[in-house]
Amino acid sequence: MSYDPNVLEATVNILAEAAPDADQTGEFPWTGIRAVHEAGLLESTVPTRYGGKGGTLADAAYILAALGRGDPSVALISAMTIFTHLGQAAKDHWPDDLYRSLLAEAKDRPLLLNAARVEPELGSPARGGLPATIARRTATGWLITGRKRFVTGAHGLTHFLVWAHTDEVPARVGTFVVPNGLPGIDVIENWKSLGMRATGSHDVEYVKVEIPVENVLELVDPSVAQQDNRAHAAINLALTAIYLGAAEAAQAAFIRFAHERVPANLGHPIARTERFVTLSGEIDLLVSGARQIIFGALERNQGEAEGFIRARLLAGRQIREAVQIAVRGIGNPGLNTDLGLERHFRDIQSVLVHAPQEDTSISILGRAAFERWNRADAERPAHSASMSILKTA
């Protein structure tokens, strides 16, 4: 385990206290982020070869589920850095000196990294296509020019990981490490989402932003640069743990309301009525079931992409339904900001919005099912296929 459960729980309490205000203002949630940093959670997955704790993907998911109970916006911003360290642990694709210099920065302030990949014309790379953002080679480095969308945590990031193509012939595609605050970077404040408001997932425009030559990861031919949705399936499932945490917070709000609400005509809490017992059971089935699905799949870790994709879709749908049941069950008080359930309901709508979206994920599963059948059909003896045809004729 790469974290202290007691420290984690104390951090969650700080996030939960600050979350309502962050949601209302939409400002960058510094209170929560500083708490996560001071708890050492942002670096929980730094590889042991760099002196880190070497947390696993399952460790990351447990951390994110807990942070999601406090403030899913803070959890999502934190996740981008936590996953970046996991990527380095697995692929070792960062220039060593650059990565070590970032870890040195993390001792004094929150090191916040996030990929800037989505573009206005391209949309999500999960659906295919290559970036319009260009990296022009100079005598001393690169000039980055382009516009990115949905850059979570834009104002508070220390570094953008910008996906771009080079001006070389032939062109290559890679990820360019762009420190925030450089001349030519403009955060365009257009994040006006229903929920997850404190993520500040604004557009960012880069105009001839100059970075050192070594600030680039994995420059490759465009033919091998397409996003592999199957390869990212486990990470996407771990990301869903954030919304599991939000659903658990909604469940807690529902239970608290049921025990505190004492109608005059009843003379006892509505938690003792059969209706609310049944509602509580339905919510628990869906929320606790989602936890079993997510962590069961991550801990088995058999590497089958379809298994992770199924788990993400099933858990995500259950989480969403559970919070809807809680809001419907409580009625008008559930839509009031005082209870907090309304905020959880809004946040939970993003559970399956992250790329790849539901339709893309369903298509992956559908094609895989067809391929399994085709392989099995090809391996069947010829007489078995004939008998099958006769039986259905």
Automatic annotation (TrEMBL):
Keywords from the UniProt entry = Flavoprotein, Oxidoreductase, Plasmid
SUPFAM superfamilies for the chain: Acyl-CoA dehydrogenase C-terminal domain-like, Acyl-CoA dehydrogenase NM domain-like
Q: Where is the Acyl-CoA dehydrogenase/oxidase N-terminal domain?
A: 15-80
In its keyword annotation, does this UniProt entry include Flavoprotein?
A: yes
Give all residue intervals belonging to the Acyl-CoA oxidase/dehydrogenase middle domain: 119-206
Q: Which GO-annotated molecular functions does the record name?
A: acyl-CoA dehydrogenase activity; flavin adenine dinucleotide binding
Q: Which portions of this protein are annotated as coiled-coil regions?
A: none
Q: Which residues form the Acyl-CoA dehydrogenase C-terminal domain?
A: 239-355
Name of protein: Acyl-CoA dehydrogenase protein
